[in-house]
Amino acid sequence: MKIALMGPIATAGIAPYLAEPPPADFPPGITGAPFMGTLIGALLARGHEVIAITGGGFEATRDAHPLSLRGERFEFHCCPARRHSMRPSHGRMGRILDFYGYERRTMGQILAQVQPDFVHAHWTYEYALVAIDSGIPHLATAHDDPLVVLKLFRNIFRFGRYLMARQALGRASALSAVSPVLQTRLSSYTATPIEVIPNPLNQSFQVAGQPRAAPAKGEPHRFISVQNGWMNLKNVSTALRAFALIRRELPHATYHLFGVHYEPGGLAQTWARKKKLAEGVVFHGPTPHEQLIQELKHATVMLHPSRWESCPMGIAEAMALGLPVVGGNDSGGVAWMVGEGGLVVDINRAEDVAAAALRLASEVTLYARCSAAATERVRAFSPDLIAENYEKSYRKAIEDYRISK
Question: What does pTM read for this prediction?
Answer without folding.
Answer: 0.92
